[in-house]
Amino acid sequence: MIILKRKSILWLVIFLLSLNSCIINREMMFKTPKDGSFQYDSIPMRPYEDYKISIGDKITFDLNTNGGKNLIENLTQTSVEGSGRGSVISSGGSGSREFIVKTDSTVDIPILGDLNVVGLTIQKCEDTLEYLFKNQYQDPYIQLRVTNRRCVVFSGNGNSANIVNLTNPNTSLLEVLAMTGGISQRGNARLVKIMRKVKEKREIYLIDISTIDGLKYADMVIQGDDYIYIEPRTRLITGAIAEFAPISSLISSFAVIYTLIKKY
User: Fold this and answer.
1) CATH code at 69?
2) CATH at 189
3) How far apart (Å, rounded) are the C-alpha atoms in residues 198 and 153?
4) What is the domain range of residue 37?
5) Quick one: which of 107, 182, 223, 253 has the fewest CB in 10 Å?
6) Category of 181 on φ-ψ map: left (φ > 0), alpha (ψ -120 to 50) or beta
7) 236-263 and 2-18 helices cross at what angle (nearest 10)?
């Protein structure tokens, strides 16, 4: 009888663990087939192309006259409305004015009006603004920034994520992970997935930074709208315990009630 009970308990444990694929670790995302059939894309250390402005971006810019001569001479910049020599009109700095790219692909720039900027690189947009401002200012020089470039980071905790603003256009993977507190205790450094939108689809790169060999990938430049997903390690035993603890507690309560009823 004792052997039979032990076998029953063993089979119950095996049954509970077998439910891992259906109810345990349900918070894990972006799983790939276990047969190894999924093919990851080749890892680019540098972006294929410069960042292009898109709908919803927020841009800010500084407009300097005389080809930005005052920047070289390190002159004091003074906000002005005229077009005098050595002057600067700034939408940056504290209390900066940001211009939002609208759904029709345009941004409303003072003096110029609506300007179609979607698909332009930052350099191309600067050149365009300089050309259009020539009628108003003496040899304009533009410095433009996209202020809301960001990426999403899942650090491997399974149920938490962070949005990181990429103020530096050359922010590396290691820097982004440092900004979010690094890989969580449950995260798997061997399975770092980066999902990047390239034209009409997202390429997926698998990076292993668990060893010193992965240092070369730690310098990979992260782009705006990248998803960084660090796959959590599976929790077979602890997950099963967490899932079935309430059921176990309920069964124990019924057992106590049944015993009391039977006794009295």
Assistant:
1) 3.30.1950.10
2) 3.10.560.10
3) 18
4) 33-49+149-234
5) 253
6) left
7) 130
**Do the beta carbons of residue 231 and residue 193 sit within 8 Å?**
yes
Q: What is the mean pLDDT of the chain?
A: 78
Answer yes or no: is 254 within a domain.
Answer: no
Are 154 and 38 in the same domain? yes
**Which pairs count as long-range contacts for 86-92, CB under 8 Å and 24+ apart, including other chains?**
88/62, 88/63, 88/64, 89/62, 89/63, 90/62, 90/63, 91/60, 91/61, 91/62, 91/63, 92/60, 92/61, 92/62, 92/143, 92/145
CA proximity to 85, closest of 16, 151, 139 = 139
Token pair, residue 160, equals 């938490």
Q: Is the pLDDT of residue 199 over 60?
A: yes
> What pTM value is reported for the model?
0.66
User: What one-character DSSP code corresponds to residue 24?
Assistant: S
Could you tell me whether strands 227-232 and 150-154 are parallel, antiparallel, or unpaired per DSSP bridges? parallel
Helices H / strands E in the chain, number of each: 7, 11
Same domain, 44 and 157: yes
Please, what is the end-to-end C-alpha distance for the chain in angstroms? 27
Unique residue bearing structure tokens 């990938």: 217
The type of residue at 107 is V
* 43 within some domain: yes
120 lies in the same domain as 164: no
Query: Can you tell me the mean pLDDT for 198-219?
Result: 89
Q: Mean pLDDT across the stretch 92-108?
A: 80
Q: Residue 84: its pLDDT value, please?
A: 43
Per-residue model confidence as pLDDT tens digits over 13-48: 555 555 544 555 566 777 888 777 888 888 887 777
